[in-house]
Design goal:
Number of domains of chain B: 1
Number of strands of chain B: 16
Distance between the termini of chain A: 57 Å
Structural class of chain B: alpha+beta
Order of helices and strands of chain B: EHEEHEEHEEHEEEHHHHHEEEEHEE
Helix content of chain A: 25-40%
Strand order of the largest sheet of chain B: 7-2-8-1-14-13
Shape of chain B: globular
Largest sheet of chain B: 6 strands, antiparallel
CATH class of chain B: Alpha Beta
Shape of chain A: globular
Oligomer: heterodimer
Largest interface: A-B, 43 and 40 residues
CATH superfamily of the largest domain in chain A: Aldolase class I
Helix content of chain B: 25-40%
Radius of gyration of chain A: 27 Å
CATH topology of chain B: Glutamine Phosphoribosylpyrophosphate, subunit 1, domain 1
Chain lengths: 544, 376
């Protein structure tokens, strides 16, 4: 630093940053690929000057300096260009000469990310690793009285129901009286949660749809995918594959003009309609699609002008009270498809979830309730919402399920849990734990991005720049130069791998518990945890 | 794995036949307990078919409390079988004061009760007595129902039978269900002992129902007073049977569809597929996860046997006109009915329900892929 260089409050050194670029001069070929690939332009070509003193021991000889130069990589310290740790530089380097390393102390950067008075916004998940789901063990292993089942050979029925299920007495009466029985879908208990066309790139979206169609049509796994709040491409709306899709409507109603107009031309009904009232990653906040992601295609599908930011309102504008709004919206949506499509709300995890649930139990049209816990991911949110707002999913699902048990309506309103499922890579174990706590199925988003498309984001705030459209893997970008990095067919293939692997792992959990003929919803006698307070709170066994 | 036998006979037979058959199958039970259900009674009870019979185990103090309670609600003793036992019980059998089998006369004010009211009140009294017994540990009540006797005790079945001198004419019956237990310790709660009974429906099971926990929570939340207990995971089979008949108005053929529904592929081709699809969805909470062989008896004294979806437990049905038996093993059946056409023995598989009606003419085999009988 030059002596006259001004020091501002936000002047940071490389040491103050969360990620430091380690560059090896001896290995570098100066090919420039790293500087070209860096999504945030944190590294640039640097010219480094070195002084070499020319000292002679001969009397009379003049001591002088010689200056040499070398070329290399310089890391910027301006918060606007901070390294996000994505390590794309490492990926492209032919000689493994460069890698970002996590700082060994808490960074100072986070104090300066509100430049221009704009608080830090990002994508990803809450920057907190681990969670209670990973601690839950499956302890009721069938032993002497019952042989455990064979995960590889026995017949397993791993499906769940989405839709309002009438009490058996009523259902039988309505069948004989030809009464209206709410539509119910038999689906795979792992649902790809709402990630919109817009938040995701076209290649990612198409890859997901392709994978889901393959799972259904070739492997007979009734996997469903939710659109998120971004509408649905017109061709998909008019295709037979729509039956694998859950259409989401949220507070911005993006894309719904297109959807409503496509209804007369639909070859098949969608799987269900999800009304999003809240999202675990940013409870009480709406979508935040920024203008640079709203290109012509996105704009056309969403029914908006291109190049404008699309912040969805935090709540549905028609909403005066939750009861009224939920009842009216659910009914309107039922009516649009002739009462043939289940309609259900999704809320963010909250201590008031029970009130919502109790309200839904009295609404004969409410098809289920999806709850998205605090560990859910998003493409864009305020950091404060992500890190500090919301409710953990485990207790929320448990309380709701036990409440349904008390009123005798367990599984009449299926509960779907989301938010951090598979956060540490243990998707099957997390999903099984949630199912045994009372969920009828789980929704995952972030895990799918990580497993099927190689998303680099992590809970140590790595990458997490989905919001600015510069996703280095092309997953959440609308820039063709970026999203063409993602191959549609390869994403589809990974989706299939992920679901098949998950299915086997789920069997490996259910088989030793002696469960195969139905999903063990609420089988909490099989669960244990070594945290006494968590055991008490979740009403499961305390084991050490 | 326990051992089970059910016998149905035109002529009343001694419960010893069933208990000796259990002894033949003793490789499959460890003598840790025995349960016995007798229905369609012969002997003296034949004359008082409508009188509710209380079966249970009482201490002297419990008996006094029982008498006081029954007199208070207007029940008079009509007939009783006193099981006087030797002073020292066999090893492993607890010392009890009194095994009671007592038929009562209904109070006069019950004359106007509808059958439903009457059944509900009988159930209520049984539950009340059980509660009283649990409070002071002085009574264990198994059943309070017309034409029904239940005896349960810890110990080796045959030793218990000899100790209780069950080989007596007054206990002869046309329908007998017996179970020899295995893999339970001696502190076992007698309420966990099969068969279980509720309002004329009774079942016993071998194997463990791994889906017990959510099923029992569902049944408890039906707010039906009799859906309680659950000291054993197998008690839910009896209650599901009761729920299928009483709450849903369905039949035995459909019971199998409730506990082990067909796969969707099979439902598509099933003549009653649409109804069964709805049944599968709405009764999803009642789907069992074996391995289980369930043998039971209906209020009309039919007996039946069903297997779980994986058919991981043994079971065989056989006999001749007027005398049939369902047993865990062929050797048990051979002992109970040695003279029969063995070529007609039938081992039900994962889709089958076998039953013998009250007329005892044949073993009826019903597959889940068959059309359901028309409902009215």
């Amino acid at each position: 630093m030059f002596s006259n260089r001004p020091i501002t409050p936000s002047s940071l050194s490389i040491k103050d940053l969360p990620w430091q670029i380690l560059w090896d001069k001896d290995k570098c070929t100066l090919c420039g690929q790293c500087t070209a690939v860096c999504p945030v332009n944190t590294i640039e070509l640097g010219v480094f000057r070195q002084r070499e003193p020319q000292v002679s021991l001969e009397p009379g000889e003049i001591t002088s300096n010689q200056h040499t130069f070398y070329y290399g990589i310089r890391q910027k310290t301006d918060p606007a260009y901070r390294c996000v740790g994505c390590a794309m530089c490492t990926m492209v380097c032919p000689n493994d000469a460069i890698i970002p390393a996590k700082s060994d102390e808490v960074d100072k950067l986070k104090f300066h990310l509100d430049r221009g008075g704009q608080p830090w916004r990002r994508g990803g998940r809450r920057n907190v690793a681990g969670g209670v789901l990973d601690q839950i063990k499956f302890i009721r292993i069938s032993m002497l009285t019952d042989p455990a089942l064979d995960a590889g050979r026995h017949e397993f029925a791993i499906t769940s129901l989405l839709g309002r299920i009438l009490p058996p007495e009523e259902n039988i009466r309505f069948v004989s009286e030809n009464g209206w029985i709410p539509p119910v879908r038999e689906i795979y208990p792992l649902i790809i949660g709402g990630m919109s066309f817009g938040a995701l790139s076209p290649t990612m979206w198409e890859g997901l749809q392709l994978g889901v169609a393959y799972l259904n049509e070739e492997l007979a796994m009734p996997v469903r995918i939710c659109t998120g709040e971004g509408g649905c491409p017109p061709r998909l709306l008019r295709s037979r594959f729509l039956k694998y899709v859950i259409l989401q409507i949220a507070s911005g109603y993006f894309g719904w003009d297109e959807i409503i107009h496509a209804i007369p031309e639909m070859k098949t009904d969608p799987c269900a309609i999800e009304i999003k009232y809240g999202q675990g990653a940013k409870p009480g906040d709406g979508g935040l699609l920024m203008w640079y992601k709203v290109n012509k295609l996105i704009a056309a599908i969403r029914g908006v002008p291109s190049g404008v930011s699309l912040p969805s309102p935090p709540t549905h504008q028609t909403q005066y009270s939750i009861e009224e709004s939920v009842a009216k919206m659910i009914q309107s949506m039922y009516m649009a498809w002739g009462f043939r499509v289940p309609v259900y709300p999704k809320i963010s995890g909250t201590s008031t979830a029970l009130a919502v649930l109790n309200n839904l139990t009295r609404n004969p049209y409410a098809a289920s309730l999806a709850i998205d816990g605090e560990d859910g991911g998003t493409g864009a949110a305020y950091n404060v919402s992500m890190n500090h707002m919301g409710h953990p999913i485990a207790t929320n699902i448990r309380d709701c399920y036990l409440n349904l048990v008390t009123v005798g309506k367990q599984n009449e309103i299926p509960l779907f849990a989301g938010g951090g499922v598979g956060k540490s890579g243990n998707m099957a174990a997390n999903a099984a734990a949630l199912i045994m706590l009372g969920a009828s199925g789980v929704q995952v988003g972030k895990y799918i991005m990580q497993a099927a498309a190689g998303c680099l984001g992590s809970e140590s705030d790595r990458c997490n720049i989905c919001n600015i459209g510069l996703c280095p893997k092309g997953i959440t970008s609308q820039d063709p130069r970026l999203y063409r990095r993602l191959d549609v067919d390869q994403v589809a293939q990974r989706i299939v791998d992920v679901f098949l692997g998950f299915d086997t792992e789920l069997r490996k959990i259910f088989a030793p518990l002696g469960r195969s003929t139905s999903l063990p919803i609420g089988m909490s006698d099989a669960l244990g945890i070594s945290d006494y307070n968590a055991a008490e709170r979740l009403n499961i066994k305390y084991v050490v | 794995m326990c051992r089970l036998i059910a016998i149905t006979s035109d002529d009343p037979i001694s419960p010893m036949v069933a208990l000796e058959a259990l002894d033949v199958m003793r490789e499959g039970h460890d003598g840790s307990g025995v349960g016995l259900l007798l229905r369609d009674l012969g002997g003296p009870f034949e004359q008082i078919k409508d009188a509710p019979i209380l079966s249970g185990i009482f201490s002297d103090r419990g008996l006094k409390r029982l008498d006081r309670y029954m007199i208070d609600i207007g029940f008079m003793t009509k007939y009783k079988v006193t099981l006087k036992v030797p002073k020292t019980p066999p090893e492993g059998v607890p010392k009890r004061d009194m095994y009671l089998v007592r038929a009562y006369e209904y109070p006069e004010e019950w004359d106007d009760f509808s059958p439903e009211q009457l059944q509900a009140r009988l159930l209520q009294i049984r539950l009340e007595l059980r509660k009283m017994g649990e409070e002071k540990n002085d009574m264990i009540v198994f059943s309070f129902w017309p034409d029904t006797i239940m005896i349960k005790e810890i110990g080796d079945p045959l030793e218990v039978a000899e100790y209780l001198q069950l080989d007596r004419k007054s206990l002869d019956a046309r329908v007998i269900m017996a179970q020899g237990r295995q893999n339970t310790n001696y502190e076992i709660d007698l309420y966990a002992c099969h068969p279980f009974f509720i309002q004329g429906f009774s079942t016993m099971t071998n194997g463990e129902n791994t889906a017990f926990f959510p099923i029992s929570r569902f049944l408890t939340s039906r707010n039906f007073p009799g859906y309680t207990g659950y000291q054993s995971d197998s008690e839910v089979f009896t209650h599901i049977l009761h729920y299928t008949f009483s709450a849903l108005g369905l039949d035995l053929e459909t019971y199998k569809h409730v506990i082990t529904p067909l796969e969707n592929e099979d439902l598509k081709d099933h003549p009653s597929g649409e109804f069964l699809k709805h049944l599968k969805q709405s009764c999803r909470k009642l789907i069992i996860d074996g391995p289980n062989c369930v043998i039971g008896c209906l209020p009309d004294n039919s007996i039946f046997m069903v297997q779980d979806r994986k058919k991981l437990r043994p079971g065989v049905a056989g006999g001749r006109r007027g005398l049939f038996a369902f047993a865990s093993e062929v050797c048990g059946l051979d002992f109970a009915i040695p003279y029969r056409d063995k070529s007609r023995d039938f081992q039900p598989m994962y889709l089958d329900t076998v039953s013998v009606g009250p007329d005892r003419q044949e073993v009826k085999i019903c597959s889940q892929t068959d059309p359901l009988p028309l409902r009215h």
